[in-house]
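Researcher: Good morning. I'm working through a list of sequences from a screen, and I'd like to move beyond sequence-only analysis. For each chain I'm collecting a predicted structure so we can compare shapes side by side. This is the next one on the list. No need for commentary yet; just the structure.
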Amino acid sequence: MSDISWVLSHLNILSVIDILLVALIFYGILFLIRGTRAVQLVRGIIALLFIAILVSNFLRLTAFGWLIRNSIPALLVAIPVIFQPEIRRALERLGRAGGLMDWRLREAMTTQVIEHVCEASKQLSERRHGALIVLERETGLQEYADTGIKIDGEVSSELLLTIFHPNTALHDGAVIIREGRAVAAACILPLSEELRSDGHLGMRHRAAVGITEQSDAISIVVSEETGIISVAHNGRMIRHLDERRLRKVLQALYKPRFEARWLHRR
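Model: Good morning. Structure tokens for this chain:
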């Protein structure tokens, strides 16, 4: 209690402002990486440092303690390299007025993307053209977009039908859509191990589920053999969807988070 009293007695307005600014900076960093894979990496780094400091202090390991103290500056230098995709994504969000963009505009963009994806999925299903479409959300998918061919074109049903036509060079792999634009096509995605034993589902379905296991993305897959439309989210797959049901699922999953919470309160 005496230590706490001593600290409180030495607090002044500037000290309080100083503490609040530091807390605000940490809150801002955590807010920007929320929903990204960087959260797991940060947790792992903090847990590793905490365990290492406890071990070195309690067991009086001089050499190990020296190694930990000298590794921290190197770790601070490595953080921007490790979190480069997340940092770039966060700065892009700040450049768009820190996420305070017009929500009506975002709703219109989301609705337009859903309509184009549903229309394209319907026609691809009827023609038995296989397709894999990934809708990026909060988790950045740039590392997977880099494995494909850059497009950066406005999403339309015609564009998606052209990409997934069997005679085109881009029909294999996934199309990644970010904020109303097709970022890249023919992208390579991680495969789900959970579906390995299911002989009815091929590589497209495993990739569709795999990307949702590692991010908050939404995947739409059209089977080349059966024409069945499926949606994957959070490591799970909803199958046998028609255009109407697909639209309902995407409207429920793909709405901006702020908008979804606001509608729920109403």
